[in-house]
Amino acid sequence: MPQPINIHQYKNGLVLLTERMDWVESAAFSLLVPAGSARDPGPLHGLSSLTCEMVQRGCGPRDSHQLIDDLENLGVDHSASVSNVHTSFGGAMPADQLESALSIFADLVRSPHLPEDQLEDARSACVQEIRSLEDDLAQQVMQNLRQRRYGNPFGRNSQGTIDSVQRITLDDIRDYFDKTYRPNGAILSVAGKIDFDQLKDHVGQLLESWESAPLTEPTTSDVDWSSMHLAHKSHQTHIGVAYESVPYCDKQYYQARAAVGVLSDGMSSRLFTEIRENRGLCYSVYAVCHTLRDQGSVFCYAGTTSERSQETLDVLIAELLELRQGIRSDELARLKARLKSALIMQQESSASRCGSIAADWYFLNRVQTLDEVGRIIDDLTCESINAQLTEHPPERFTVVTLGQNELELPVEVL
Amino acid sequence: MKFCEHRLANGLEIIAECNPKAYSMAVAYFVRTGSRDETDELSGVSHFLEHMAFKGTATRSAADVNRQLDEMGAQSNAYTSEEQTVYYIAVLPEYQDQAVDLLSDIMRPALRDDDFQTEKEVILEEIAKYDDQPPFGAHEKSMAVHFRGHPLARSVLGSLDSVRSLTPEQMREYFERQYCPNNLTLAAAGCVDFDRLVQQTEKLCGQWPQGRIERRTPRAESNRDFRIFPNEVSHLEYVIQIANGPAAEDPERHAARILSTIVGDDTGSRFFWQLIDTGRAECAVMYSYEYQGTGIFLSMLCGTAEQTAENLHDMSVILHDVQNKGVTAQQLQQAQNKICSHVVLRAERPTSRLFSLGNGWLQRREYRTVAQIIADYRHVTCDDVLDVLQKYPLNVHSTVAVGPLRELARPQ
Fold first, then answer.
1. Number of compact structural domains in chain A
2. Three-state SS for B79?
3. pTM for this entry
4. Cβ–Cβ of A345/B62 closer than 8 Å?
5. Which of A24, A73, A235 lies nearest to residue B334, judging by beta carbons?
6. Which pick of A10, A34, A46, B409 has the fewest CB atoms within 10 Å?
């Protein structure tokens, strides 16, 4: 797999990561600034989301209408989102429009208007998003699970509450913007049909004079691994289960990821086979690895009608306990085939590659090539995966349920 | 990029867009059957049958099917709509033969009684899942209201009652009728070896007997119904409005897509600036969909119950304004730029091309290259959009509201 990756760090701390993909006609970028919701002061939870909403309401020479019109005329498929650690602006477009698009986003992170007359509209947009979560029951369960496992501020959602968002003033937003929309801790990743040297110069002109400012790292509190039930008159009971795993930067990460793959990747995976295929208990059931910089978790989900929810939880926990006995070589062979074909198919999407290299940089401080990941997958063995499972067995489960009835929790649950 | 087609003696058609430079290939059976081909007693059978195809064949158990898909490292899935059931697999090119072998085999599923009963439970769970999540059945209800008396009124999933009372015999009969080779198209995209694809399909499917298929494709009547369905689970109010639009075979469909982008795309549209940018609604969008014989403009509004009446009024003002004044050259060009860029970006993945290829063939028996599709959108003028508005007035629509509201005034 030919894969020229280039990395350049500007003096102000901004890192430019690029991957050239000559076989596509597109280019995609992600611009991550260290304005994650973990930096929201407690009483102003949701500040990063409201700031993200405000910076998109005009920047540089453009008002908010002109900003959207310019992006759409360039054919930029654009998005913005807030996670616990970053606010991210992304775009995918025909490759020849990349430089113009980046010029617009440079204005957006450096000279947004933050217009006072649009503060209430932006606040309402944030409140709408919070309200919409009330109707998303599966997400409510998974959000509560994450909050319990990681505590504050890394387990919090990024939207905040209606009360906390109502409290935020324009001065709060300006102050937060000044502190967190900074090049130190920022990552610009670009993948597609690009020329690195030309891009490095262009980005330098746009962002080299962006001034850095010191950032403080948030500390963790309020971790609570006990289980909980949320009463709701829904048709289905939504079940979330979490247990501790290793983070992405751990040298055993791929072993842990492979064990979860045996549980949940593909139609012959254990959870799909035992819960859906053999018993018909669920339509949706899955397990995923989730990572922070310094800790990792496995999050599992199953949604099922109330009368079958106890059996679903029991079978789910039984499968997690069974995993302690180890995985089989035929399971590993299938998993390797899936992971490797997914790796090759990633090369068909510039947006997918630009997201991957940015995540690598944040978690690892370097970028893994597809060849490197391919070799790691080739080298996985049942022995190494089972040894990791012995060292970090699925245990000390946190269960969050939402539905009409509270379930009886198995003894392995906290 | 090369287009190839072949027809077996029994009517099964094979089409492919071959791109030797692609990293992967994707292949699918497009079956021309869906909820519009069902009756009251059979409601939900097309979708249930889609699930049963993965439950094994004469030579493979369900576990064999699942295991072999994973052994190929395949990304596979299936879906059922009002007028199609599609089974697809994306794999690396060296797995082409295995993918086609498995996919062709599951087009002749065993439909065993015990698998039927287990899978029925999964379908009932799927119905319960959609009952619990946005938009809380509003889409099915709006189709049922708008298309009353028309085949497109039927729900794809069916109801809890209709699925509970389905029998394996009914499904087998439906299968025999609808899955005959002359109702199937095998489509492939990406790094495809077409000659081998044809040879293999001839061997695997050449003996399947032809059948006789009929589908009614009437135009839909215009409809101004206004219906409220109170729902005690949801917090927000979900409103769907449907107006008639061009059908899949109508050349006006490109102008209709441009019109719906200008009125209701998720950014930069009339709805966006009025309702989303101002934070008054959670969602306000319009899409155009085409079916055989008829089409629709579907608008969706979601927000708090208290704001719904005012928001609906504002949407109605926008629809009247566009209906009377049409669109400007600037709006047209911006929508063209946005849509064309989207077409180019999507075309980079073989799976995206596969769906475009298969849909075009099923709906129109036509192949369009990416360049031709872009030209189709670029050629649309403001007058073309006016013609669409005249033929399919946006402000003549049915309305369905689902959520906490028990009453809602119809906007004047």
1. 2
2. strand
3. 0.95
4. no
5. A73
6. B409
